[in-house]
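INFO batch 0412 | record 1 of 1 | parsing
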Amino acid sequence: MSELLDLETLTAGDKVVLAAQLFNEATAESEGIEVSSEVLAAIEERLTHLDENPESGMSWEEVKKSLKHED
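INFO prediction complete | emitting C-alpha cells
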C-alpha cells in the first residue's frame, strides 16, 4: 500500500463508496466469504440512495456525536 487514507477528510458519501469498494474487493478475493443476494441488493440500494441524495449522509463526527447523546 503506497499511502494511507485520512478518513477524516472523506465525506460521508465517499466513506460509503469506499466501504462498498472494499467489501466488493474482499469478497472477490476470498472464496470463504459468501454474500447473499439480499446483502448485495441492500448495498446497491443504499449506494443508489446516496447517489440520489448526497446530503442524506452524516459525517463521522456527526455520527459519533449522535451516539454519545444516546447514552
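INFO post-check: The chain has one domain: 10-70.
INFO record closed
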